[in-house]
């Protein structure tokens, strides 16, 4: 029998639970916890990058095929060249942001560059610039939550 007069706390963390990083396999547990949100960000950012490349290809087709010259001005009075220029600049910005997120997620998966990993997770959680717009937000938040754990921060050092 134990000398402890108090019963065990049912709300104390289980040292054998999947989310608990205490114990002998600390580095392996942290790597497992970081792996899932990192892979999610990699997949979603790659999907977004492919979509942006397709959109840029479509805009290039419009310009080089001459279809852009036959496009009518929209109701706002913006000419066709300005419309395509705005779309191309927007696509390049989204491409650049998703490239940062992709690179940050790859570094996060290998437990390197904590500031970059956190930056990529934050970028993924921002609406309208995250990978595939709103699809990346939950993965960005998930990555932020995992990255803010003290044992995860320690594993990056």
From TrEMBL:
Superkingdom in the source lineage: Bacteria
Sorted UniProt keywords: Membrane, Transmembrane, Transmembrane helix
Segments crossing the lipid bilayer: 38-64, 84-106, 118-147
Entry protein name: Membrane protein
Species per Swiss-Prot/TrEMBL record: Rhodopirellula maiorica SM1
